[in-house]
Design goal:
CATH class: Mainly Alpha
EC number: 3.6.1.27
Number of helices: 9
Keywords: Hydrolase
Mean pLDDT: 88
Organism: Pedobacter africanus
Number of strands: 0
Protein name: Undecaprenyl-diphosphatase
Enzyme class: hydrolase
Distance between the termini: 19 Å
Order of helices and strands: HHHHHHHHH
């Protein structure tokens, strides 16, 4: 029964994100996407740019470090629950990464700086724009960790990190707001869909 539930959940999740991508290509929402990035570019300073580049560059370090840290702690303390939580966080991240890449290849949305010459990116990453991979991975980690340890001192920093990484993608001009919104939805949904992997 749970396998059927997950199958339909992923189908619904994929459909919603794909639809979001198609809608974002329409003129009204696209103009809003463009204007947000143009406005953010006008407010850049060297200090803020350095800070948000740091967040973006270290996103993968955090996403890999969290499950590895839980695994190491579980082994050292001989804590089976912690080891299971490490598996839950790692599995959520792995599934999310695969789904994110699949959607990117299906939607094929160009990066903002390629679609609009008025949008100036701080740097120019490759791959497609929709959804934001940094956002989906950071929200997967934040959600899975918060589900594993639902304490305010875990939840607040986790989502603060995910939100900051997500905003960095806008500030740097490498993703549209709709890319980021879809990434947050995808990452959160992936972690929620695998909650049965948590220990009792």
């Amino acid at each position: 029964m749970m396998r059927i539930y997950y199958k339909y959940f992923f189908a619904l999740q994929f459909s919603l994100v794909f639809l979001f991508g198609q809608v974002s290509a329409q003129s009204g929402l696209q103009r809003l996407d463009d204007q947000v990035l143009i406005d953010l570019a006008e407010s850049r300073t060297p200090a803020k740019t350095g800070f948000f580049m740091f967040l973006s560059k270290h996103n993968d370090v955090v996403n890999v470090g969290v499950p590895l840290g839980l695994l190491a702690g579980g082994i050292i303390a001989d804590d089976k629950k912690m080891r299971q939580n490490a598996l839950y966080v790692a599995s959520s991240s792995a599934v999310n990464a695969l789904v994110t890449m699949l959607i990117k290849k299906v939607v094929k949305r160009p990066r903002p700086f390629l679609a609009n010459v008025k949008i100036q990116a701080v740097y120019q990453p490759t791959h497609y724009s929709f959804p934001s991979g940094h956002t989906s991975t950071s929200f997967t980690t934040a959600t899975a960790l918060s589900q594993a340890y639902p304490k305010w001192y875990v939840v607040v920093p986790s989502y603060l990190w995910a939100g900051s990484v997500s905003f960095s993608r806008l500030y740097l001009g490498v993703h549209y707001p709709t890319d980021v919104a879809a990434g947050a939805l995808l990452g959160t949904g992936t972690a929620f869909s695998l909650r049965s992997m948590r220990p009792d």
